Each structure stands twice: as C-alpha cells, then as structure tokens.
Amino acid sequence: MTTPISVPAERRRQVAGALRARLPAHVANSVVLSDPEDTRPYECDGLAAYRQLPMIVTLPTSEEQVLEILEVCRELKVPIVPRGAGTGLSGGALPIADGVVLSTARLNRIVKVDAYARTAVVQPGVRNLAISEAAAQFGLYYAPDPSSQIACTIGGNVAENSGGVHCLKYGLTVHNVLRVRVATIEGEIIELGSEALDAPGLDLLAVFIGSEGMLGVVTEVTVKLVPKPAVAQVIMASFGDVITAGNAVASIIAAGIIPAGLEMMDRTSVRMVEPFVHAGYDVDAAAILLCEADGTALEVAEEIARMTAVFEGAGATAIAVSQSEAERMRFWSGRKNAFPAAGRISPDYYCMDGTIPRKQLARVLQGIEQMEQTFGLRCSNVFHAGDGNMHPLILFDMNQPGEFERAEAFGAAILALCVEVGGTITGEHGVGMEKIDSMCVQFGRKELDAFFEVKRAFDVPMLLNPDKAIPTPHRCAEFGKLHVHGGALPFPELPRF
Ligand SMILES: Cc1cc2nc3c(=O)[nH]c(=O)nc-3n(C[C@H](O)[C@H](O)[C@H](O)COP(=O)(O)OP(=O)(O)OC[C@H]3O[C@@H](n4cnc5c(N)ncnc54)[C@H](O)[C@@H]3O)c2cc1C
Predict the structure, then answer these.
(1) Does residue 96's CB lie within 6 angstroms of at least one atom of ligand 1?
(2) What HEC string does 174-217 produce?
C-alpha cells in the first residue's frame, strides 16, 4: 500500500501554467486539469488499494498536444504517467505526487479498418472491444480479449502486453500488433514495426510492447485482424480434485491440441460465480475446465471429440458440450464475471498474476491451498490454464486491521513459488508498483541494470513512469533485508524510495 503525499500549490500552478501556455487557448483549460476535485478520479487504477492524487492531469486531443505536454514536462523535469482506461491491476497508471498523468481518453478514433489487409489503425484510447465491433461488418475481429475488453484501451494493452481467453491459440498483444507510433520524451515521433509482417533493423516493437509506459507514449497502433470462426463450441469438464484438473490441462496440450481457450475455475470460484450468473456450472466439482474449439463445423466436431477423449482419459467426472451459441456464451459468462462475483463473498480481493510451466499447475495449486492456512485467508483460482497464467484472487477485508498486509504477503509468496517452479511473476498484468519487489526475487542485479539501460536508451531524463516495474539496487536491498530480518528497519544509511 502507498502513503499519499501532497505537492506544494506553487509548483502545481507553475507547471499547469506552462502547459496551458503551450496549448491553443480555446482548449488549454479542458486539456489541463489541476483542481484536486477534477484530478481525484485519476488517483488510482484497478489496484485501488494504492492511491496517489496527481499534481496535474492532461487530456490531449491530438498527437501534437501529446508532444507539447512531453516537451513542457521535460523542460520542467516533471515525471509523466501515461494512462488509458485505468483498468490495470498492478498500479502501472498510479500517479506520482509531483507528476502529470497523460490520459489518452480523448485519443479514441478508429482511423481505418482495412478488410483486404486485415488490419486496423487506431488511436491509443480506443477500447479493445471497439476494434472488434468496427471490424465485425467485414467478418473480422481483434483476437486478444482481456476480460476487461469492454473498457481497457489498446494503448494500455500494448503497454502491458495484455492477454485473454483466446491468446492460447491466437497469441498475446505482441503477436497481434504490427506497428506503433510513439511520442518520445525528446518530443519526437518514432514508428516501430511496419504495416508488413516484418520491419528492417532490430525488433524494437517487441521491446516496446510490455514496457508499461516507461519508454514512450503510444499515439497510434496498427493491429492485425483475424476472420471470425464459422463455428465455436465449448466443453465444460468437471474434476474431483484440482490436481487431476491441472494434469488434464497438460494432457490436452501434450495431445497436440491448441484450444481456442482453456480456462480453469476451482470450487471456490465456481460457487462464488454460479449464484450470480447461473452459468450452469457443476458446483460439486473441485474444479472445472472450459475448453473451446473453433473453426469450420467439421474441424470443431473433430476437435471436440478429441478433447472429450483426453478429458475422459484424464479422469473427468462429468463433461458437457455447448449445443448452441447461447449455451456457449452462458458457459463463458461465469468465467468472464468471476472477478465481479468475488465481491459477493468478500468485501475485498487482491488479484495476483503469475505464469508457470503448465506441468507445474497441480504443484502450485497445492502450494496455494497450503498458503491459505499459513496466511489465514481464502483464495479462489480462476485463470488462463492453457497458458499456465494463474490469477489467484486472495479474499480479504480491508477494514480488518492487518488483513491487507497479509494479503500482500500471501501474493508475494505465490509469486515466489511461481519463480521457484520455473515461471515468472507476471503473465499479463505487468509489474507496475504492485510486483516491483518481486522483480528482486526473479532477477539478479545485472539483469535489472540491463533493463535500466534499455529505459535510458529511450528516456534519458528518466521521466516516463519512473519508479515502476524496475527496482533500484536500494529497493532490492531493502526488500532482501526485510525478508531476512523479519521486518527490522533496513539499511538506514540508504535513501528510501
Ligand atoms: C475485471 C478486470 C479483468 C481483467 N482481465 C484481464 C485479462 O484477461 N487479461 C489482461 O491482460 N489484463 C486484464 N486486466 C488488466 C487490464 O485491463 C489490462 O492490463 C489492460 O491492458 C489495461 O488497459 P488500460 O487502458 O486500462 O491501461 P491503464 O490501466 O490505464 O494503464 C496500464 C499501463 O499502460 C500504460 N499506458 C496506458 N496507455 C498508454 C499509452 N498510450 N502509451 C504508453 N503507455 C500507456 C500505463 O502507464 C500503465 O503502465 C483486467 C482488469 C480488470 C479490472
């Protein structure tokens, strides 16, 4: 959790004045918000336990305005936090007390949908789902589908390398973006990637995607579109224990099948969602798997038969196959509504995100079960099982003293287990502020220094979303000592962050 700090009013006036002076007079006041009443809605993202009122919020309506804002900030040495819809779950868009939030909310135009090239060119504030809606008239859609797709923006998706149910078969954001236009802190526009499948030179597009707003501000994105499959069907398979369900996931992939989606929900998740959504889930199962096939009618029929055989062989206790589009949507509705449903059984939840080799699913689920006892908190598991991307939802009550701290410690222990079994501390939600200490567990100093060098290559003054995602040596030293000495005041001689 963060302790909010406030910034002197004089500095706020100075920076707001400089920004307004650089913008056309008729828009200056609507683009630059400095009254705390106006900036309050931006004080957090989806990780609402972390809050900080920004000094200023800017809402540019053009790429030129983005460049002007960056230039003023560079001149006055003001940190900048880019922001899309603020649905991020790791505090990536958490403001900085003496910083400017640069929101892309008004850069929300679909520039072009090219049905022949199967691409769309969009501004960064366009919502993920709006791209598919615009492409639907051509029988096309944008495949990466975060559960937040109704709200989250493509700029945020690029910054987080977001995933979703369909990413197992169709790839993450990085596999579905061809080109980005980026405003740099130097006030230049650069283009990474190209409209073609490859671009000359080093693959800086792949470096940029997933860089969490620390290298530049995305001002335009070209995405790939894919044809909507003719048919899709989903299997709901029940299992008597989570270990068998975890092993069934590995068996599907080992059988050479790449489902269009392969998701797992444990008993806590199923029982939390079913009364809310009435998806028809098996509430007696210890875990259910949702496994989708898409393609032509013939391909789907053949794949569903193979998947069914694998699940039967892997010990499924019941299998249901959707018989209509309405039933398929109903099966998915429970999975898609799992996060909101958590609010019905717990005042607060803390959503972790770690990725592990699929064959380790059973071991990690067992480990989480044991940690529920250790930390005295419940955890529900609903996640992208096919990708090995776990989303443990730790349930707690913010009003109970110490529960949030215990939830944070529980989350950090899960991430440490992910690293121990050969996985990573994030799958799709990024590092942001939430997991910055866990970066010290995952990486050594030399690797972290190399990440800083990449940042410096794009952002010499270190003003773009600083203090996020990459921990400083001091931070790791503090974190290490904290853990070794059980909370004793660490390294008093080092500056605190
Ligand atoms: C209910 C729920 C379900 C979710 N499900 C999924 C899921 O299935 N898969 C998944 O991957 N994520 C999921 N998320 C997390 C979140 O929606 C994604 O990380 C999403 O990509 C964030 O987009 P945003 O527009 O809200 O970005 P924000 O939260 O505003 O910002 C996220 C990061 O991107 C940076 N950023 C934003 N715009 C720009 C830009 N134009 N240029 C440079 N940097 C920028 C910010 O600085 C920040 O670091 C979920 C969140 C919620 C609340």
Answers:
(1) no
(2) HHHEEEEEEECCCCCEEEEECCCCCCCCCCHHHHHCCCCCCCCE
- The answer on pLDDT for 311 being more than 90 is yes
Q: Does domain 231-339 have CATH number 3.30.70.2190?
A: yes
In the chain, where are the structural domains located?
9-103, 110-227, 231-339, 346-420, 438-484
Is 346-420 the same fold as 231-339?
A: yes
Atom of ligand 1 nearest to the CA of 81: 47
Total residues belonging to the chain: 497
- State if residue 155 touches ligand 1 by the CB under 6 angstroms criterion: yes
Q: Which residue carries 């589908």 as its tokens?
A: 145
Residue 468: strand pairing partners: none
Q: Determine the atom of ligand 1 nearest the C-alpha atom of 217.
A: 42
Q: Whole-angstrom Cα distance, residue 52 to residue 174?
A: 30
487 pLDDT above the threshold of 90: no
Residue nearest to atom 5 of ligand 1 (CA): 147
**Quick one: which atom of ligand 1 is closest to the CA of 151?**
26
Q: Each residue of 111-146: pLDDT tens digit? A: 999 999 999 999 999 999 999 999 999 999 999 999
Residue nearest to atom 53 of ligand 1 (CA): 87
Q: For the domain with range 110-227, which CATH number is right: 3.55.40.20, 3.30.465.10, 3.40.50.2000, 2.40.50.140?
A: 3.30.465.10
Average pLDDT of the segment spanning 18-26: 96
- Please give the structure tokens belonging to residue 136: 């639907």
Q: Is the CB of 173 inside a 6 Å radius of any atom of ligand 1? A: no
> Ligand 1 within 6 A of 439 CB?
no
pTM of the model: 0.91
Give the distance (Å) from ligand 1 centre to CA of residue 283. Answer: 32
Strand partners, 382: 265
> For the chain, what is the radius of gyration of the CA atoms?
23
Q: Which fold has domain 9-103?
A: 3.30.43
Query: Topology of domain 346-420, per CATH?
Result: Alpha-Beta Plaits (3.30.70)
- 102 within 8 A of 96, measured Cβ to Cβ: no
- Ligand 1 within 6 A of 212 CB? yes
Rounded mean pLDDT of 392-415? 93
Q: How far is the CA of 26 from the centre of ligand 1 (A)?
A: 31
pLDDT over threshold 80, residue 489? no
To test the ligand 1 pocket, which listed residue (52, 67, 83) has its Cβ within 8 A of the most ligand atoms? 83
Return the pLDDT at 289.
97
User: Measured in angstroms, how far is the CA atom of residue 487 from the centroid of ligand 1?
Assistant: 32
